[in-house]
Amino acid sequence: MNTNELTIYQKIRNDIISGELKKDEKITEAKLAKKYDVSRTPIREALKQLELEYFIKNSYIFMPTSEEYRQIFEMRILLETYALRKAAVVYTKADLEELNKYAEINIDKESEDKIIETNDQFHQKIIAATNNQFILDTYQKYKSFIYLFSQTVINQRRPGLIEEHKEIVLALFNRDIDLAVELLETHLKNDLEFSLYYLDFKKTE
């Protein structure tokens, strides 16, 4: 996507992830309005969204510890494995084929942005099976963390990433839901450990 087409929210989010906005730098409406050459109104709305997603806390970039990330992933595993069990009941053949399409991407040939987008579509398709707005809202609230981890996993080309997606889909096609859930849980744990290694979070214990 052309940077000129990005929303203010996306620009701020991307600048947080890239390190353009520093973690020890206080985030203010006036400073960001000047930086992005816009009025304070879109900045205010973007900051509200970023606070909801835990990108920003108390006017500073939120920097979770490795333990906090583990706790977030524990919740994510609970939500996605629950969603997968629902998917096994409600998914039609068309749903399974759609999920399979997201698992067919060639990680060696596609752009990083395309891989991140397709990876997101795969997991969003699973969580959507809950058809529960409260679960969907909770999942969206932590999308910033999921995005950061996805970016790290894909940027570093984690071995087995897409193959694990394919295995999950195959288990669903075979109606082996216990295996699919086990594979999904392992997949998410692999993402977590791989990302924490590269993100190099300092232990606070």
State the end-to-end distance. Answer: 40 Å
Element pattern in H and E: HHHEEHHHHHHH
Specify the structural class: mainly alpha
Q: Number of helical runs?
A: 10
Describe what you observe in this structure.
Residues 2-69 form the HTH gntR-type domain. GO terms for molecular function: DNA binding; DNA-binding transcription factor activity. By secondary structure, the protein is mainly alpha-helical. 69% of the residues lie in helices and 2% in strands. It has 10 helices and 2 strands. It has helices at residues 8-18, 29-36, 40-52, 66-90, 93-102, 112-128, 133-141, 143-155, 161-173, 177-199; strands at residues 56-57, 60-61. The chain has a two-stranded antiparallel ribbon with strand order 1-2. A hairpin with a 2-residue loop joins strand 1 and strand 2 (60-61). Helix 4 (66-90) packs across helix 6 and helix 4 packs antiparallel against helix 10 (177-199). It is elongated, with a radius of gyration of 18 Å. The protein starts with 7 loop residues before the first helix and ends in a 6-residue tail after the last helix.
In short:
With 205 residues, the chain is mostly helical. It is 69% helix and 2% strand. The chain is elongated and about 55 Å long.
